[in-house]
Amino acid sequence: MVEISINEKSHGYSKSQAEMVLRDFFSNKGVKTFKVTHRGNSNDSEYCVGSLTTENGEYRTTIFMKVRGDKKLINSLIFDMTTR
């Protein structure tokens, strides 16, 4: 399961559902750029904070991942619009 939050509306999705939700989000927003602003880790987790610029505005984006062996699995994605 992957937790996806877009403008404070949060839902848990299976891998295939999450792929569809993200495909729809990115195709409807007109992505221009993404810039990583901060990275960190703690035990078996990592996170990344960035700024996603789209045609509709800017989103503060946070990605939480679990490290399993040599793989990083996305636990949750958060997109919060900061400007319009």
Highlighted features:
84 residues; six-stranded mixed β-sheet; 1 helix; 6 strands; Nuclear Transport Factor 2, Chain: A
Overall description:
18% of the residues lie in helices and 68% in strands. It is of the alpha+beta class. It has a single domain, classed as Nuclear Transport Factor 2, Chain: A, CATH 3.10.450. The chain has a 6-stranded mixed β-sheet, covered by helices on one side. A hairpin with a 2-residue loop joins strand 4 (45-54) and strand 5 (57-68). The longest helix has 15 residues, at 15-29. The protein is globular, with a radius of gyration of 13 Å.
- Give the oligomeric state of the chains in this entry, treating copies of one chain as homo and distinct chains as hetero: single chain
Strand count: 6
CATH topology: Nuclear Transport Factor 2, Chain: A
Give helix and strand order, one letter per element, not per position.
EEHEEEE
What spatial form do the alpha-carbon principal axes imply? globular
Measured distance between first and last alpha carbons: 30 Å
Number of domains: 1
Mean pLDDT: 93
Structural class: alpha+beta
| Percent in helix | 10-25%
Poorly predicted runs of 5 or more residues: none
Largest sheet composition: 6 strands, mixed
Strand order of the largest sheet: 2-1-6-5-4-3
CATH architecture tag: Roll
**CATH classification class:** Alpha Beta
Rg calculated over all Cα atoms: 13 Å
Number of alpha- plus pi-helical segments: 1
